[in-house]
Amino acid sequence: MIASGLILMLMFATGPASADEYLREGEFHGQPTLVLSNDVLELSILPFGGALPKLVLQNDEEQNNPLWDSFRAREERGRPARPGGSVGHFVCVDGFGPVSEEERAAGLTGHGEAHTLPWVTRSSDKEGKVATLTQAVQLPRVHELLTRTISLVDGENVVYVHSTLESQLAFDRPVCWAEHATIGSPFLQAGVTVVDISPNRALTRPHENENPLYRLPSNEEFTWPMAPTLEGGQIDLRAAPAPPNSMDHTAHLLDPNRQYAFVTALHPDKRLLLGYIFPTEQYPWLQIWEHYPATGVMARGLEFGSQAFDLPRRDVVTENQIFGQLLYRWLPARSTIEGNYAMFWTKTPEGMLGVDDIEWKDGKLHIQDQRSGINLTLDASLDLW
User: Fold this and answer.
1) Which residues contact 245 (CB under 8 A, 6 or more apart)?
2) What is the residue extent of each domain of the chain?
3) Does residue 47 register a pLDDT over 80?
4) How far, in Å, CA of 113 to CA of 21, rounded?
5) Whole-angstrom Cα distance, residue 61 to residue 43?
6) Res. 83: pLDDT tops 80
7) 94-127 burial by CB neighbour count: b if 16+ within 10 A, else e?
8) What CATH architecture does domain 4-379 belong to?
9) pLDDT per residue over 208-236, tens digit each?
């Protein structure tokens, strides 16, 4: 393993942040981070694993962070935090889910290589109002190069992310790519925090009904947000149950007729809203992972990607499709594919209850809540697609 000091030295080999400190060194549970910021947001990035563990508003005295703090959960169970890995929002590429016995023997781990390796900073800059950070990670076992550029614009609540995945082999192949965006406690509060998704076709995860924590039956289609229960009833999945004591997965085929899809999480009492917007062509699927232990230290994955459920590559390619939609992306020989998304983190008006639609038009995000009649508009001046 490369020492954290060497990681930072590699990251800053292209030059230190300028005096306005749009990019600085920080730490998260004792691990070194880079902090990319504008006058509205601060985003922390782990150099080992590339995860985004923390996103806060500059003017928030409580420094509320919507992202899953798995380090805290491990520490509460008496287990040390691991370098990099599964925290906050991390990238699963090339692989989303467990590995086969043969892959494990060859050195592959679950959720791909990208979250297990040091990322090197290729460039950082601020031109006018736009601050950018470009990092790359070589994936030696699958022979791919992942490059990611994160941008912030002064005055905006939006994080813009542009990624490329380059094949270094001479044949076409299916790849598994997911953005493992995950919210967690205390932002994720049972019975309070609500998740909304753009139009979709939903399915419960196939299982053997053996886990006593399952609420949902195996492999049943449903209309979001009302899902069937094992007892034959229905439950609204927008909020975690109170008190919490369950775990389930659902998959959502996002409407292919829409240029982009969205998923949001709102804490109406704190008046805080996290959202993701992404092209349906690049990320046709969304997996909702519910981890609701009785301790109340909860996590909920809002995982958008190339496949319905996090499963071994062989299973995904063999199944091939659900609802007529492929469960992987093609990466052509010695070519590059893209993955782009925007995330936003903002205060909301009093009384906002959820998100029914988002329109990205003329450099603005128009966020509509039909339940309350409230519309929220955010500046979003950069193009991603």
Assistant:
1) 213, 292, 293, 294
2) 4-379
3) yes
4) 31
5) 16
6) no
7) bbbbbbeeebeeeebebbbbbbbbbbbbeebbbe
8) Distorted Sandwich (2.70)
9) 878 899 999 999 999 999 999 999 999 99
